[in-house]
Amino acid sequence: xxxxxxxxxxxxxxxxxxxxxxxxxxxxxxxxxxxxxxxxxxxxxxxxxxxxxxxxxxxxxxxxxxxxxxxxxxxxxxxxxxxxxxxxxxxxxxxxxxxxxxxxxxxxxxxxxxxxxxxxxxxxxxxxxxxxxxxxxxxxxxxxxxxxxxxxxxxxxxxxxxxxxxxxxxxxxxxxxxxxxxxxxxxxxxxxxxxxxxxxxxxxxxxxxxxxxxxxxxxxxxxxxxxxxxxxxxxxxxxxxxxxxxxxxxxxxxxxxxxxxxxxxxxxxxxxxxxxxxxxxxxxxxxxxxxxxxxxxxxxxxxxxxxxxxxxxxxxxxxxxxxxxxxxxxxxxxxxxxxxxxxxxxxxxxxxxxxxx
Length: 357
Prior knowledge:
This protein folds into two domains: 52-182, Glutaredoxin (3-Layer(aba) Sandwich), CATH 3.40.30.10; 207-344, Glutaredoxin (3-Layer(aba) Sandwich), CATH 3.40.30.10. The chain is 39% helix and 17% strand. The protein contains twelve helices and 13 strands. Helix 4 (90-99) runs parallel beside helix 6 (157-168), helix 9 (243-249) packs parallel to helix 11 and helix 11 packs across helix 12. It is globular, with a radius of gyration of 22 Å. Residues 11-27 and 186-191 have low confidence and may be disordered.
């Protein structure tokens, strides 16, 4: 009897959390096409010459665990959202200041910097070497200059608090972030039987995704989701329902997989036989929806489990379709060029010319 009552309470709590999240998602419509001016929090450290090895030494002398580097680019709506919702949170701000010195990094800065390990190179090249594909990206370094954790994309306050606890408690030494977050589920969630939302462009099994076995020479779009996933449902409504996204996805082989599925056999683009669950785990994803993008030859091009809305989704698909990576461009470089091209067209249409771009 007690066990049944506990289960009933857990179900009620789970649904309460679900509807609170639903309200929070709808409370502020996020449009990633809006250009935002980036203003870092006042408690970030001023490092005019970006001598990060020296900054790390100062952090160590002040009893900090190390440095937090916050990679942004001017105009980034995701960066602005993270600053306003997460970094502005008093608990988050005080926790970061207690354990780390924080420094902002512009992804496209051509100036030379000194990395935490003492290497001299341009900030732009450093961002590329550190795997900064999307903005914002946050990288934590320990007192020796060793990378603790890299976070890609927007992090909600709730999620970022858990990540900070993972780092501040030194849990990163003994377990992955994926394992840690699994152990920190807020409530015992009931086994909800909600089906995964389907779309007409999703391929049906068998999932033979190795490039040599796919009938058409198309790039590959792989989407991982989970049942009763609010964010997944929102992604379908706000992104996958858009005509411009669907038009781009028609040029891909699109596959949707259940991240909890341990039974369905998959032949991955590189020829591995694996389950969706194990593939999701090996990709080091920690939330859904999560996306993998491959080119026609089966090579992975982009990977993210961060928030992806309209513009970022369209640009991600174009980045793969136009093979912009063959030019040596990162996704962020490609996105900037797309934005500049659009601005030039708008100026020409208004008779203003393109001299300032």
